[in-house]
Amino acid sequence: MKVMKFGGTSVGSAANIANVKKIISGVNEPIVVVVSAFKSITDKLLTTSRLAAAGDYSYEREFREIVEQHVTVVCKLDISEPQREKLAVEVNKLLDELSNIFKGVFLINDLSPKTSDKIVSYGERLSTLIISYSFSDYEVLDVTELIKTDSAFGKHTPDMELSNKLIRNAFENSSKKVLVAGFISTCKTTGEITNLGRGGSDYTAAIFASALDANILEIWSDVDGFMSADPKVINNAHVIENLTFTEATELCNFGAKVIYPPTIFPVYHKNIPIRIKNTFKPEAPGTYISHDGEIRKSKAMIKGISSISDSCLITVQGLGMVGIIGVNFRIFRALAKNGISVFLVSQASSENSTSIGVRSADAALAVSVLEEEFEKEISLGSINRVLLESELATVAIVGENMKYTPGIAGKLFETLGKSGISVIACAQGASEVNISFVIKNKYLRKALNSIHDSFFLSEYKALNLFIVGIGTVGGNLIEQIRQQQPKLMEQYALKLNVVGIARGRKALFCREGINLDNYKTELDEKGITSSPEILRDGIINMNIFNAVFVDCTASEPVSQIYGDLMSQNISVVTANKVAASSAYDNYIKLKNTARERNIKFLFETNVGAGLPIINTMNSLINSGDKIVKIEAVLSGTLNFIFNTISKDIPFSKAIYLAKESGYSEPDPRIDLSGMDVVRKLVILTREAGYQVEQADVEKNLFVPQEYFNGTIEEFWANIRQLDSEFEERRKKLESEHKHLRFVAKYENGKCEVGLQEVGQNHPFYDLEGSNNIIQITTERYNEYPMIIKGYGAGASVTAAGVFSDIISIANVR
Ligand code: ADP
Ligand code: ASP
Ligand code: MG
After folding, report:
1. Is-above-0.90 flag for pTM?
2. Relative to the alpha carbon of 205, which ligand is closest?
């Protein structure tokens, strides 16, 4: 004997019913088929009831949808026309009854639990009736005669002994193919219609399987099996091949909707295995749930993660509780008396507080009954008021292997910590099959993703990148990432997932990763209107783990969102110098946030493009050295300009060429005014451990201020006036064998920038093209300072520097 249950997801349409018929036609043993209401019908019946009870006319529209859904299936069902007519009459009769009940509810504006139970029963009654016409060789048994319930606190529980007896009796003379409705039942004393709770068709099937000693219970749904997490939240969740009854109970009790929790006990009791199958992919093996679940074969530390989002935490707290016997007894007694179910309990050994997790719907009642119970203690002050925290979620990780593997709790909480999620309460039963914890609801998705990633996907590490700015640097970076993606995956098991791209006023977000082959078109076509604030909120709300914000703009407003992002544990990698050179307080706050949150704030490319300057300085300092002097040519643009000026290329043309070659800032005035070098020097000096502001830098400039005052067009027009002066200077320097270098310097607490004429013996004399040079004098590198020299500007080296910062976050070598 086999019991097969097909859920609403499997029987929503005539085509789906035909599909189910095909699946059951292959079964060669006695079979009981249990069916649910058509897809979403139970939800619609409840919504319609609520609207009608509230006197809202729109209940009629909702009801019409219910009617249409059934009428459509009747019309399309693969049966003869006379049969269809007969079926239509029967269906219409049920729908008329239902319509009358709704009218009554609408008129008296009242919906008793009894009426509500009656209304929802029509879902399964209609579906079973319609399906019975299609399964003409099946005998239909009236399940309301077979499953009898007791009632308490508005919930109905089956009387197992009685129901078992009734089912067994009914099957004594029944055929080998039986169809029954799931979910519905009747009260054993009043005979009124009841049900087994939302999702209860699974339970109906289990009760039949247990009563009839079936050899297997099959639950057919729209998923390939029991998954490692809800596939609607975690898109790379995988099917779990085997589960023990205990593991399955733990998972579904905690929100894995694929099985209604009470389903497991009746079959567990009789040692009848359960198989979860996909109606739409019957060839997939599904999940096998049994006593041993073949756990020993599985090496996985945990089997799955489940969660419930509508949680509240209630805490009874007070110094007067310490050492007093019976406080917990009173808490649970008061809750039990009021039918409130508790799914998590946490008490510290100091006994000063007890926290309990309840569903949001039960929270207000729970608080009021506890306040009543402890009224005296509260008035005396030995217990503080009962504290309610709402908008929480509870997550559980489950697996019998936890018993045999130390360190799982450590891994779990480390993962959460790294994602910046604080745990409000936690509980682990001594059976060590489940660790549960409570967090803010808004972090649920991120928590599930990071835990899933850390426990199941350890074969590779993922970094989720948001890239802002797709100009010369950003564009090059994306291209480099695109080219390197396969190699990084292969060599370092690192997956670089670009989940967001933005430029100007457009942003595109995609959790699954943006295809970098045509991201520009995607951004244009699917991008949303953006601003730094929209970007910030979008990224934070995406709630994604291992997130890195990559700023390839030169924008101040973009730099202003770093702090908010970092305080949500999002690392920042930036080619934008604004933040690191802004007010010292802001710079240090960002650095401290990164340290406190154990994330990264990296800006190696702020100075010397891809040259390893900041990293080198950090390494020197970390190893106990002290930087005493910095001398550097830090502007690739200015160096390019001074190296390019010749008798054929005047000053203004050299500036133009610097811009055209992508060396200069988008606005070359930032380079010429020395501003760019000032920023770089400030950043270096700060990284060397000194507190400086931009205003502290003494500037000896070579382009007078008036050239910077107007518009960019005026600048290009006027700058030519300086060509002849520079030509004179060039000729003179040529004869003296000297070169012009714009030098930045820090020494003895003083920062300065200015044009310097350097002779042939100076280390800065030979410095080609847009190269940078930096000479660092430290306590150790004193007589012969350390020199770093190379390309100091250019989109591709800068992009490579950004790329290398990103990779360093993944910690691969
Ligand atoms: P049915 O109508 O067949 O009873 P349900 O909607 O009750 O279907 O249950 C199936 C749904 O359970 C899936 O569509 C899936 O979104 C959800 N679900 C939640 N957690 C899990 C999980 N761990 N594994 C599989 N499905 C899950
Ligand atoms: N139709 C009922 C519900 O949606 C029972 C079930 O589908 O299992 O809750
Ligand atoms: Mg279900």
Report:
1. no
2. 2
